[in-house]
Design brief:
- The chain contains two helices and ten strands; from the N terminus they run βααβββββββββ.
- By secondary structure, the protein is mostly beta strands.
- The chain has a single domain, classed as Beta Barrel (Lipocalin), CATH 2.40.128.20.
- A ten-stranded antiparallel sheet has the order 4-3-2-1-10-9-8-7-6-5.
- The longest helix is centred in the N-terminal third of the chain and has 9 residues, at about 30-35.
- It is globular.
- Pfam families: Lipocalin.
- Keywords: Retinol-binding, Transport, Vitamin A.
- Belongs to the calycin superfamily. Fatty-acid binding protein (FABP) family.
């Protein structure tokens, strides 16, 4: 059920995110901003089943809209142009991005009322935890 993800989430902790950004090829200046940013993640679902996920920071706001299981073109906050597909797998929202023969996976799940985002690129794993906002 996607409904459990709906709402506004605020980043409360982040582990190994710089290493993850390095692994996906993010440049130094953008990594510095990425580490400073404390994004709000806003997730909504409309009546047609289209999910919107908006990441809001003081630097940049990015939004993606998608239907589960349908591939779409995404321009990421760090400027990558990816083919992205999001599925619901055992209660996890799994986002797979592919570009330039590379692939990364972002798994979002609700654990103890918090949204946990696990970012995986090869053997590098970052974990970001968001608390429910207002």
């Amino acid at each position: 059920m996607v409904e459990q993800f709906v709402g506004t989430w605020t980043l409360v902790s982040s582990e190994n995110f710089e290493e993850y950004m390095k692994a996906i090829g993010v440049g130094f200046a953008t990594r510095q901003m990425g580490n400073l940013a404390k994004p709000n993640l806003v997730i909504n679902v409309d009546d047609a089943g289209i999910i919107s996920m908006t990441s809001e920071t003081t630097f940049k706001t990015t939004e993606i809209k998608f239907k589960l299981g349908e591939e779409f073109d995404e321009t990421t906050a760090d400027g990558r142009n990816t083919k992205t597909i999001v599925t619901l797998d055992n209660g996890k929202l799994v986002q797979q991005q592919t570009w330039d023969d590379k692939k990364t996976t972002l798994e979002r799940e609700i654990i103890d009322g918090k949204l946990t985002a696990k970012c995986v690129m090869d053997d590098v794993v970052a974990v970001r935890i968001y608390g429910k906002g207002a």
